[in-house]
Write a structure and sequence with these properties.
Elements (H helix, E strand, L loop, with lengths): L7 E4 L5 H8 L7 E2 L1 H4 L6 H12 L2 E6 L7 H15 L4 E6 L16 H7 L14 H12 L13 H11 L11 E5 L6 H10 L7 E6 L5 H13 L3 H10 L5 H13 L3 E6 L12 H7 L9 E5 L5 H6 L4 E5 L5 H15 L8 H10 L4 H12 L7 H4 L7 H14 L5 H10 L5 E2 H8 L5 H10 L3 E5 L2 E4 L14 H16 L10 H14 L7 H4 L4 H13 L3 H13 L6 H17 L3 H12 L5 H14 L3 H14 L4 H16 L6 H14 L3 H17 L8 H13 L7 H12 L3 H14 L3 H14 L1 H18 L6 H18 L6 H5 L5 H15 L1
Parallel strand pairs: 1-2, 1-3, 3-4, 5-8, 5-9, 6-7, 7-8
Antiparallel strand pairs: 10-12, 11-12
Helix pairs in contact: 1-6, 3-4, 4-5, 7-8, 9-10, 9-11, 14-15, 14-16, 19-21, 19-22, 20-22, 22-23, 23-25, 25-26, 26-27, 27-28, 27-29, 28-29, 29-30, 30-31, 31-32, 31-33, 32-33, 33-34, 33-35, 35-36, 36-37, 37-38, 37-39, 38-39, 39-41
């Protein structure tokens, strides 16, 4: 008897075997039983099928055709599969290879009635269209088979939290009734969703938790459409009816949809995701939804968030919502769980020494999700000598560990372009259906294989059937790895192709999620006009969310356009979201030198006592953009004073404040040092360490050394602390280049800048390098800079933000032309789009510097 079984069984006539083999080749090697490819050579084929393969399979794929109903082997297979299909142990997929009908008619013999009858058990799920093409059939098989990618690793039981959650949700006046809503907080990776699902098994053992993303920009109708689509499997046509007939602020419709899901035995999980950062609270209208739900024999709605329930929200919803904080795990408990994971993931668990287990457990920082990723990754290492490249320093913070892990994981994909392309798309549009990912990426291998590789590395996770997203722990941490020109070029063309392709929804699963994927793809690609079938669903929430992502990706022109639209529709949002819209629109307008619009935003914030703390920072940013650094310092200091209790705002303020102090004609280095030390004490990050080292560097070369004894040692110590930081990247080389420039050692400065750009090829760093080459390099090196800049323009490498980078690029180009004795007339072609006056100003600036 064969010992090897496969989760997918292909039932196909020998006359159609070529079709089936084409699909078999696209699947992982150990997934599909196809008698012509994976049958055991010495076995009696039917014994192998009936005793081993069919009973062990999870998915039964019928290659339905006129050939199928006349093949004796196929008849036996589907008749045996009928019972397995009816009791739910097999998931069917019927691929229609020709026009053979799905039910018996008089055109067929009476002997075929049995096979048509058996087929009915496989028709609970929608079949393919007739005459299906091989590529589409492979996609459908992959879509159904993605259930096999669902993680099945051990779960850490935490019964004390289940008891605590039940106690907090139970009404004090009635032990059989519970608060309708639970707010479950805790950091990503500590098991919030697992606790919620385990808790609900006590009340509805077969109930399904309908998981829906929500953020500060979500509007009521958007949530309603997501609930209808994910929880009630509403068709696209019905979604269009809801979109056209339901008003934007209709809370009653949301309550009704939730009630329908509860009546079915399920429940809702709203997961607070972030556009950029989770400190921004969820919209106030959500309280109206909470207060519209009545206590019952079980809770109905669970809100998962990194932030605890705010006091104001607790008061507003005191009779309808209770909260629970899910803490991180202490190291001894995490270590015990680590043993279970090692036994699950590693075929040779005995190679794990106590020292290695302690190292991995310590690196997990009390987070279950990170421990799972680390053990899974380490289990695939040939030896543990590589472990140091996977794990940050022992005394590092969680942010350090995540940076090291994400970079290690991405380096494992150097030979996997399909996986890299999948990541760059999910970095902008997440979660996403596997059918859409396949259409976008067009992988050379099966999309199942691509996703499987990313799952192994812990870069993505399976949200629900066929839906994937970036692992929350790593979201917004892959930007540095995903800025290669080849990836960015691919992304733009792939987005355009995806948007323009016809949206085919053969099943009603995740239809609104797939509509929103296309909306985000269109907006992120810079399109203003969307295809009509998705354009009708566009809301101000989509403009705002895409605008923020574009802003943080330094694609400022597209960001400005979308944020302007959101700003003009800000009254549709609650107060906290309106504040964020004004903030980002102001930042974008300032970056795009729309100073009057930025002033308008600042005035709006200054006139509201709730937002005055924010207006000081934005005014400082405006003065910094105008190069009025003394006024910028004044307003940044005012922002610090107004935001003493808000760590995130302080962190955002220290960095530009220190930079502006150093850019004043006569920097106050004592003040800069004070703020740099406070910055490092607040957050020990790459940015704070760079700021401190740069203060001492400038003090060493530009200041009065007598005002700081031991300045040389202070600088070297700060530089050493920066060099050993896990996320140092190019920063150490940038500072060394700046130091060499102070020493007028051009060869060393250029060497360090070359090393910095090799690590991080962001445009601003490359422009700084070209300016250095033009300023100090002499004729030959300046000629090289000219050629490199001309190549960048010809290849469109900075195309997304060409207008933003053009002034600095043009200055570097003009300086290189002057040093290499080339005609300044070349500027007119290079700087097309700039006015004659702007070009003339740059030429005067370059000549003044040279003189």
């Amino acid at each position: 008897m064969s010992q090897r079984t496969f989760p997918i069984f292909f039932s196909v006539s020998s006359a159609d075997i070529d079709f089936a083999e084409s699909i078999w080749q696209s699947m992982p090697d150990d997934w599909v039983y196809l008698y012509s490819k994976t049958g055991a050579e010495s076995e009696h084929m039917w014994n192998e099928i009936s005793a081993d393969m069919l009973p062990a399979a999870k998915i039964f794929v019928v290659f339905w055709s006129r050939n199928f109903i006349s093949a004796s082997g196929c008849i036996r297979e589907i008749e045996q599969a009928e019972a397995l299909l009816r009791n739910g142990s097999l998931r069917p997929l019927v691929l229609r290879l020709d026009d053979c009908p799905l039910s018996w008619s008089s055109e067929f013999s009476d002997e075929t009635k049995g096979i048509f009858s058996a087929l009915q058990a496989a028709l609970d799920y929608r079949t393919s269209h007739v005459n299906i093409e091989i590529a589409r059939a492979a996609s459908l098989v992959a879509r159904v088979a993605d259930t096999l990618l669902e993680s099945s690793h051990p779960k850490l039981p935490r019964p004390e939290l289940l008891i605590s959650l039940r106690a907090s949700l139970q009404l004090h006046t009635d032990k059989f009734r519970f608060f309708p809503v639970a707010w479950v907080s805790g950091f990503n990776g500590v098991g919030r969703e697992t606790i919620v699902r385990e808790y609900n098994r006590n009340f509805t053992p077969n109930g399904n938790g309908v998981l829906i993303e929500i953020n500060e920009a979500t509007l009521p109708k958007q949530l309603l459409l997501r609930i209808e689509s994910e929880g009630l499997i509403t068709s696209k046509r019905q979604l269009e009816t809801i979109q056209d007939s339901v008003s934007e602020g209709d809370i009653t419709s949301i309550t009704t949809a939730i009630s329908r899901i509860i009546d079915r035995g399920d429940y809702i999980i709203l997961r607070h995701s972030r556009i950029v950062e989770e400190r921004v609270d969820l919209p106030e209208w959500l309280d109206d939804v909470v207060n519209s739900l009545e206590p019952a024999t079980r809770s109905k709605l669970f809100i998962i968030s990194q932030v605890p329930l705010a006091a104001e929200r607790r008061v507003r919803c005191r009779t309808k919502m209770e909260s629970q904080r899910i803490p991180a795990i202490d190291e001894p408990a995490l270590k015990e769980f680590c043993y279970q994971l090692i036994g699950h993931f590693d075929q040779h668990p005995d190679r794990w020494t106590e020292e290695v287990i302690d190292q991995v457990t310590s690196a997990a920082r009390g987070t279950i999700g990170l421990l799972v990723s680390l053990v899974r990754a380490a289990s695939r290492m040939a030896d543990f000598d590589q472990l140091d490249t996977l794990i940050a320093a022992e005394n590092g913070q969680m942010v350090d560990q995540l940076t090291v892990f994400s970079r290690w994981a991405f380096t494992q994909l150097e030979a996997y372009p399909d996986e890299q392309r999948t990541l760059i798309f999910l970095n902008d549009v997440s979660p996403c259906d596997i059918a859409d990912l396949e259409k976008i990426v067009a992988p050379t291998r099966s999309m199942i294989r691509v996703i499987g590789k990313l799952l192994e590395l812990g870069l993505v996770e399976r949200e629900t059937d066929s839906v994937y997203r970036l692992t929350p722990l790593l979201a917004n941490r892959l930007g540095r790895e995903l800025i290669r020109p080849d990836l960015l070029h691919w992304q733009q063309s792939a987005l355009t192709s995806f948007i323009e392709s016809e949206a085919k929804f053969e099943t009603p699963d995740h239809e609104f999620l797939r509509i929103e994927s296309r909306i985000h793809a269109a907006l992120i690609s810079g399109k203003d006009e969307l295809p009509s079938d998705i354009g009708r669903f566009v809301s101000a929430a989509h403009w705002f969310q895409a605008g923020i992502r574009l802003y943080h990706a330094n694609r400022h022109e597209a960001a400005y356009r979308l944020l302007l639209k959101a700003f003009n529709h800000r009254q549709e949002f609650a107060q906290s979201t309106r504040e964020e819209i004004i903030r980002y629109y102001c930042l974008s307008a300032t970056r795009w030198k729309k100073y009057s619009e930025a002033e308008q935003c600042i005035t709006l914030l200054e006139n509201d006592h709730r937002t005055r703390k924010l207006s000081a920072f934005l005014r400082a940013n405006l003065f910094e953009s105008k190069s009025d650094f003394l006024k910028a310092v004044h307003w940044y200091e005012k922002a610090l004073d107004l935001n003493k209790s808000r760590q995130t705002r302080l962190e955002q303020t220290y960095r530009p404040l220190i930079s502006c102090i150093l850019r004043t004609p006569k920097p106050d280095f004592k003040k800069a040092e004070k703020y740099a030390k406070a910055y490092v004490d607040l957050r020990h990050t790459i940015f704070s360490l760079v700021a401190r080292a740069r203060v001492y560097l400038h003090w060493k070369y530009r200041g009065d050394r007598s005002t700081q004894d031991g300045i040389d040692q202070y600088y070297e110590d700060a530089l050493s602390a920066l060099a050993i930081h896990p996320g140092v990247g190019s920063a150490h080389f940038e500072l060394r280049a700046e130091e060499a420039e102070f020493d007028k050692d051009f060869p060393a400065a250029l060497k360090y800048m070359d090393e910095a750009v090799a690590i991080d090829s962001r445009p601003s760093l490359r422009i700084a390098r070209w300016k250095l080459m033009a300023k100090y390099g002499g004729k030959n090196i300046a000629e090289r800079a000219v050629k490199e800049m001309e190549s960048v323009k010809a290849n469109g490498e900075f195309a997304e933000n060409w207008g933003i980078h053009l002034p600095a690029l043009t200055e570097a180009y003009a300086s290189a032309l002057r040093t290499s004795n080339q005609p300044m007339g070349k500027l007119n072609q290079f700087a097309a789009g700039m006015s004659d006056a702007e070009i003339a100003s740059i030429i005067r600036k370059v000549r003044f510097k040279r003189s």
